[in-house]
Amino acid sequence: MAQNITETPFWKVSVRFSISFLVLLTIVLSTATYFKDGNFNAISTSLQDGSWLKFVLIRIAIAIVYGSAMAYFSRKKARQQIKK
Q1: Which residues, other chains included, contact 25 with Cβ-Cβ below 8 Å and sequence gap of 6+?
Q2: What pTM did the predictor assign?
């Protein structure tokens, strides 16, 4: 039987949401880069000049904020449903 979200530690729920969001964000942004440039040359250029680090850190920060917010609201909603 699946464990209730309220019984799972907050950080585990947050990490799960963050990782899924980060994977989805990476796929969407890579696809957008491919369609914009017609190839992945922009990605290889950013790897060579080092601008990828800022890009990655910003996306990780966004994923952490998203994951924490989703974990908080999901747990809050689950608690409210248990009380009913």
Answers
A1: 59, 62, 63
A2: 0.78
